[in-house]
Amino acid sequence: MKRLGVLLSGRGSNFEAIARHIDNGQLEAEIAVVISNLADAPGLATARSLGLKALWVGGKGLSRDQYDQRLIEVLQEHQVDLVCLAGFMRLLGPVMVQAFPERILNIHPSLLPAFPGLHAQRQALEHGVKFAGCTVHFVDEGVDSGPIIRQAAVPVRDHDTEATLSARILQQEHRIYAEAIALVLNEEYRIENRRVIG
Fold this sequence. Notes:
It is built from 6 helices and 9 strands. By secondary structure, it is an alpha/beta fold.
C-alpha cells in the first residue's frame, strides 16, 4: 500500500476529501502522516480524530532549507511515497523538491498558469474571467509552476462573490485531487515537454 504524507496549514478540507476517498475505496493508499507548520491548524485535530498520525513541525528561526530538511526527515521516517500539499502555506525550496522528484503534488484554485499565488479566486473575479477552476500539479522550484496533472473548469456566474466561487471550485478540487493522486501512485503517466500524459 502506497503511503501519503499530507502537509497543511489550515482546516485541511482537501485532506479530509483524500481521507474519504481512501475510506470508501476510491483511492488505494494510506495516509502515513499529516504535518502542519502551525501548531493550532484545525486539520491536525481532524487527523487525530480520524486516528491518523498528526505532527506539528515548526519553522521558527529556520531557513527555508533547514525547515525543508526537517520535513524531509519526518516524511522519510514515515516512509512516505507521495507528498500532498493541502493548503500548506509555506513555499518549498530545492532541497525538498529534489528529495521527492515528481513526488510532491499541490492543488491550486485556478486554471494555471492563470492566477498563481494567493487569492486566486479573487484574482479571477477581478480579472472578469468567464471560467475559473482548479489545478493539480507537480511541485517544482517555482510558485504554482510545475507540470499540470489534472484541471477542472468552473463557470463564473454574474453575481459570484469570492466565497460562492471558492465553494464551487472546492467541490471540484476534492474530486480531481484524488484522481491525480491515483494516477501518480499507479505511475500511469509520462511527462513530455512539461505535458503530463496519462
